[in-house]
Design goal:
Rossmann fold, Helicase, Ruva Protein, domain 3, five-stranded parallel β-sheet, 2 domains, two-stranded antiparallel sheet, single chain, alpha/beta
Amino acid sequence: MSVDSNLKELGHRIEKEQTLIEACFAEFARRVVGQRLMAERLMIGLVSGGHILLEGVPGLAKTLAMRTLADIANIEFRRIQFTPDLLPSDLVGTLVYNQKTGNFDTKKGPVFTNLILADEINRAPAKVQSALLEAMQEHQVTIGDATYRLDEPFLVVATQNPIEQEGTYPLPEAQVDRFMMKVIVGYPDQDEEKAIVRMHGQGSLEPVRPVLGKTHIERLRLLAREVYMDDKVLDYIVGIVFASRKPAEYGLDASLFGFGASPRASLCLAAVSRAHAMLQGRAFVMPDDVRAIAADVLRHRIIPSYEAEAEGISSHDLVQQVLEHVPVP
């Protein structure tokens, strides 16, 4: 079968799923006012199987968005409040001695679920944060001598407060790199805030109906992996990542770049670009898909140099510079 025939057949299958996808966004909007970008990124994370780091000040409906996503997707949801006294066993579980049998029984922790909200993840020390690494990367947890597989889908969405640094622990680079995307959650506009006040004045959450299920999510994941990516678009993705490592070769100021993105960035950028294209109803990836999602994939992977920090240039600014200098196919 030719590429054109494959694309046409795939396009028909994606078109059939658009009603389901739009229903998800419609239900999300019933309970969460505005925040369309956060809704899209959460859906991309769900269908591409990637974990998400949300950064924003308190009160921007991050927790509400997660509960709503779990209700719409009809999957199990747990929220873990990260605190300085949290222990790894509070997260993954532990062995408990059973006096009746004389054996140790496994008590599984809250990580055994489908959707986890790790609230204010940077408030817990590094050993607790690292307890998530095995679960995030391998989708399994080791307790004592036994290893347990986690149910699918398994998605971690962590939040961190960008303005309050007292009593916080910066996330290790190894863990930050495990997050497929770092999404900046912004303030609502005036009309949206007025609608928020009116909605909360009613005293109860707007009900949403479960649109998806585990079988639907798996079907969407398989479909997203089939989205066609031309070699020119793949070269564009690799070029963006390489420009962060060898900025001088792309006409960028190398003194502003401390560390570039790893190969995991290329893998994540390709995966989310496919998911973004599918959510737009297309069977193929365009450069616009890559550009639309690049900042969320790269802003936590490109490390500014001391010179850049001294000049007030953030990693987000460096991503924008990279996108301006890498030729678009």
